């Protein structure tokens, strides 16, 4: 592409709310064969809400109070959902975040574990009577958040995040261009698969640990060719840098934006199609 055509193209993209931070991203984007999206905050709003609580041997309000108290200092969106729904929070005496799993805390003398099934498996806590509720929540596309108290399973909270209004149309538009669409997420496999089915997404990489998103991009590239990755979070930064084209959601974290080649100002997943349209138009003009 000539410098002039790149300048015209990036200018046109900027009018559509698509910022090309690097000029050669315009060319690399045209060669992408697959677009992989992070789930939370990218395809979904990233502001989950508590829907239901199932407990065993504990009152639901008490379970929520303990969990929300433990989560007060956490940055994870799940923590906000629990906090918003609870009342009479107390200060936890000890909190340890466990990346990709959840956290461990002591609240009112009770040793709590809060997080996903992988956390409970790792700590040797059986889901017992709450296993069915856990699976049901996940199959409905909601995130099951488990709590164990003093080594015994006590509650499962169903937390759900709204899909962004333009997400389904964005997947369809990418399909119409002959691209494969993937989702990479730390969330539970059944949850991710239910949301992927709703959106028409082809490939799902779920239960990916924070440091594993980069490897997920490499694995997709090996199977499909050049990858554009779209993400918003701190833990998306390595994958954004690894991808052939890293695309950050403008409403996301600064770290994600700084690691990306392209920024979608509005935060709408549909911006990916706009970006690809511009890159194709520019390259077609100069070929
Ligand atoms: P994601 O951004 O996709 O949710 P993370 O690696 O942050 O990925 O977390 C993976 C999973 O671990 C989450 O989907 C959630 O089930 C669980 N988890 C992580 N942090 C917390 C937390 N503070 N409280 C409860 N669950 C958590
Ligand atoms: Mg995210």
From TrEMBL:
Keyword Transmembrane helix part of the UniProt annotation: yes
Annotated GO MF terms: ATP binding; ATP hydrolysis activity; copper ion binding; P-type divalent copper transporter activity
Localization (cell): Cell membrane; Endomembrane system
Keywords: ATP-binding, Cell membrane, Membrane, Metal-binding, Nucleotide-binding, Translocase, Transmembrane, Transmembrane helix
Gene Ontology, cellular component aspect: endomembrane system; plasma membrane
Superkingdom of the source species: Bacteria
UniProt similarity note: Belongs to the cation transport ATPase (P-type) (TC 3.A.3) family. Type IB subfamily.
Name this protein carries in UniProt: P-type Cu(2+) transporter
Gene source species: Salipiger aestuarii
Biological classification of the source: Bacteria, Pseudomonadati, Pseudomonadota, Alphaproteobacteria, Rhodobacterales
Residues represented out of the complete protein: 461 to 747 of 822
């Amino acid at each position: 592409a000539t410098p002039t055509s790149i300048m015209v193209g990036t200018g046109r993209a900027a009018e559509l709310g698509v910022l090309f931070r690097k000029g050669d991203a315009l060319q690399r984007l045209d060669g992408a064969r697959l677009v992989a999206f992070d789930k939370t905050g990218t395809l979904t709003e990233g502001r989950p809400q508590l829907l239901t609580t199932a407990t065993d041997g504990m009152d639901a309000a008490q379970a929520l109070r303990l969990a929300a108290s433990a989560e007060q200092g956490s940055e994870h969106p799940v923590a906000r959902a629990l906090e918003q729904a609870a009342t009479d929070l107390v200060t936890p005496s000890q909190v340890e975040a466990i990346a990709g799993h959840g956290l461990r805390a002591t609240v009112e003398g009770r040793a709590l574990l809060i997080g996903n099934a992988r956390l409970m498996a790792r700590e040797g806590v059986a889901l017992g009577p709450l296993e069915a509720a856990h699976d049901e929540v996940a199959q409905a596309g909601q995130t099951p958040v488990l709590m164990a108290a003093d080594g015994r399973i006590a509650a499962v909270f169903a937390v759900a995040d709204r899909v962004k209004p333009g997400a389904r149309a964005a997947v369809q538009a990418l399909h119409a261009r002959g691209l494969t669409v993937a989702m990479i997420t730390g969330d539970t496999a059944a949850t991710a698969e239910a949301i992927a089915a709703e959106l028409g997404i082809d490939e799902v990489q779920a239960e990916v640990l924070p440091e594993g998103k980069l490897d997920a991009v490499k694995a997709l590239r090996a199977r499909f060719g050049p990858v554009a990755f779209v993400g918003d979070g701190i833990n998306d930064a390595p994958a954004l840098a690894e991808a052939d084209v890293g695309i950050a959601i403008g409403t996301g974290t600064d770290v994600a934006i700084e690691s990306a080649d392209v920024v979608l100002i509005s935060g709408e997943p549909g911006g990916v199609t706009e970006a690809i349209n511009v890159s194709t138009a520019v390259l077609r003009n100069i070929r």
